[in-house]
Amino acid sequence: MEHLQLPADAKRGPNCGVTAIAAATGESFERVWALCAARNTRKRFRGGTVHNQRVEVLEHLQADFQPMQMPRMTLDKFCNWYADDDTTYMVTTTGHVQLVRIIDSEPFVLDQTGCKPLSEYWGRRKYISRDVLKMGEPKRKPAAAPQPTPPQPTSGLTHTSLFPALFIEQQPAQSAQQLNLF
Fold first, then answer.
1. 74-78 contacts: CB < 8 A, separation 24 or more?
2. Contact 29, 9 (CB under 8 A)
């Protein structure tokens, strides 16, 4: 993985753990959501996950990861002192989960709002609250976001207009019955 990117089907909302797992493993957001929801203990799953639940889902997906115990420190300090180049880390800070990757000596952070340099990230001063997961390369590459398709011309059927002055080059021309309506 050269850089961090959101899954193509990612959703906004309180789903940082689901987004982090999907982006780190290359799985679809919907599949990871379903796996997290199946391990939920509450009546309704809204997207929030806990560390043990994320580890279970990563094991189920057979993702390559290693837990790393870290002393008390901020996300900023972790990126500057401990993170290696071209390695992805899943970092749990107080109430939030994000992916961190150092690209060309520049730390980048990905959460459900997108990928940003650490210097622009809102949570860079949050404290790490759980083991950091050093992630291996994903088995699947994340699917790129779908590109909008341009409108296709209709096959032989063109519609006439009741407003010929607005659509001068329209073919075929307006019928006499349409023009008689005015």
1. 74/124, 74/125, 74/126, 74/127, 74/128, 75/100, 75/109, 75/118, 75/121, 75/123, 75/124, 75/125, 75/126, 75/127, 75/128, 76/118, 76/124, 76/125, 78/128, 78/132
2. yes
- pLDDT (mean) for 135-158: 62
Which pTM was predicted?
0.74
Cα gap 138→31, rounded to integer Å: 15
Return d(Cα 32, Cα 54) in angstroms, integer.
Answer: 10
- Rg of the chain over all Cα atoms, to the nearest angstrom: 25
pLDDT at 106: 94
Token pair belonging to 26: 């290359």
Tokens of 114: 């997108």
CA atoms within 13 Å, Cβ hemisphere of 88: 25
CA dist., res. 113 & res. 89, Å (int): 17
Closest CA to 100 of 66, 134, 69: 134
CA–CA separation, 75 and 97 (whole Å): 11
